[in-house]
Amino acid sequence: MRGRGAIALGVAAGIAAGGAVIAVNDATEQPAAPPRASVALAPPPARSALAIPPPEGLDDGPDVSRWAHVRTATAARTAPRLGAAVVGRVAERTPEGTTTVVPVTGRAEDAGGRLWLRVTLPKLPNGTSGWVPRRALGGYEISRDKLVIDLAAERLTLLRRGKIAMRAPIGVGQSRWPTPRGRFIVRNRLERFASPEYGPVAFGTSARSATLTDWPAGGFIGIHGTNRPDLLPGRVSHGCIRLRNPAILRLARLMPVGTPVEIR
Amino acid sequence: MSLSDLPDLAALDKDGALEEAHAGLTRAGFIVGSAIGGLALWLPSSASAAKIPASDQDVLNYALVLEYLQAAFYTESERAGALKGKAKKAATTVGAVERAHVKAFRDLLGKKAVGKPQFDFQGVTEDQKKFLKTAVAFEDLAVAAYKGQARRLKSKAVLTSALGIHTVEARHAAWMRYLNGNVPATAAFDRPLTRPAINKIVASTNFIVQKKPKTSSRRKPRYTG
In a 3-state reduction of DSSP, which class is residue A164? Predict the structure, then answer.
């Protein structure tokens, strides 16, 4: 067969989309034939509009705290079960008419499979916690901020992911109306009210005065501006945290509701 | 995939609250009256970012809301710490991918990206059985949604991206179906779902908070001062 002539083997394949043709020539049979192979490439795949980054693992770190708003008023109990003693009640609304928010510090399931959450209650003694049914609270929110009130130094520090975002001198409670120590939460934000002694913005916290228990609206501790900046820093208030007005305005730009507050 | 093939999200709620919420939305004419229900609230009124057709941006923002929903769901599940074993591993892995999707969409859309809605998963992220059932529904939903929007895309680059995510969502769906005891694929063809169908399902869950809690006021403070 080889002596009778040349035999060329060709395999051609057409690809409709690109019109590509691939021809394979057996050079051992017909070395003199010029290569006829040609490759017309298909169009390259379209580039992607999105640059998908690598999967992002959770980067919470130690500075994340969790809170939730109260969906329905409920009793808080000493243990995560219906029969446990009631330690307090959680209202839907604050005295200012805003939705109550509470820090969430634990979760448990009872024998019936119902979920319970441990929350810090806005009641005296400060720091009291109780268990409420999961369904009484709304969705979880998180905070990566923390507001630290240093009573001795008369100074406020806002931390974001553990780093200082703001510092300011403050006024704190006089010795007969001391600012309570403990861990609390920023519950609401009031503004555009006409009350110069509170400055342009006021934040409500879950902390309560242990001495002014008959104060209207429950004796809650606020963080607000002032019309007496000349008194700051100092032990000048009824327990609230006072800032000069430029400082409270700056804080208002940085600090959202739900921020945990540590008074020490 | 047909609508009936989706796990019934309403069945997750023992007390019928979700069903009631959906009925309430329908009664109020919400879905019809406000266009397309929950997701519609988060769609931009207009879009015209450079290089991407406005209609494609609209689709991207629509997809971004679904990605927000998925990312928030898995993230909360991981944070809650109630999942165990393979479900925990799946939530962690899939959550990281969904967060990457969100980042990619936001980076591409820039200022045109819709904001993240507020979510309330009502304890579903803290119960392994409910988590898995919801995860199957979300993943199937995402697959159907991407498929439903593909024909609307004008940019090949956007379509290429959408296809790249679509297949990943399909793998997630298969994974979650396996963990939940469902057969990953029973039909020879998957069907797309329209936006109204997707929106109706999402709205029925009430997972997207329609009325945000009020945390600010103009009332005069009555703090101790």
Answer: strand
CA-only gyration radius of chain A, Å: 34
List the A65-70 sheet strands across, edge first: A86-90, A74-77, A129-133, A115-120, A101-109, A65-70, A137-143
Among B119, B156, B215, B216, pick the best mutation site for testing chain A contact (most A Cβ within 10 A).
B215
Q: Are A114 and A151 in a shared domain?
A: no
The confidence score (pLDDT) of residue B164 equals 93
- Which chain B residue shows the shortest CA-CA distance from A196? B220
| Domain total of chain A | 2
Domain CATH for A243: 2.40.440.10
Class of domain B16-205: mainly alpha
* pLDDT for A45 beyond 90: no
Do A204 and B223 lie within an 8 Å CB cutoff? yes
Give me the pLDDT at residue A63, please: 86
E strand or H helix at A109: strand A101-109
Domain C-terminal end among A143, A172, A202: A143
**Rounded to two decimals, what is the model's pTM?**
0.79
C-alpha closest to that of A22 among A32, A33, A10: A10
Q: How close B28 gets to chain A, by Cα (Å)?
A: 21
Q: What is the pLDDT of residues A90-136, one digit of tens each?
A: 999 999 999 999 999 999 999 999 999 999 999 999 999 999 999 99
pLDDT tens-digit map of B181-207: 999 998 899 999 999 999 999 999 999
Among A99, A122, A143, give the residue marking a domain's end. A143
Pairing of strands A163-169, A155-160: antiparallel
Supply B157's token pair.
């680059």
CATH number at residue A72: 2.30.30.40
Q: Which domain holds residue A211?
A: 145-263
Entry field: residues in chain B? 225
Q: From CA A119, how far away is CA A107, in angstroms rounded?
A: 9
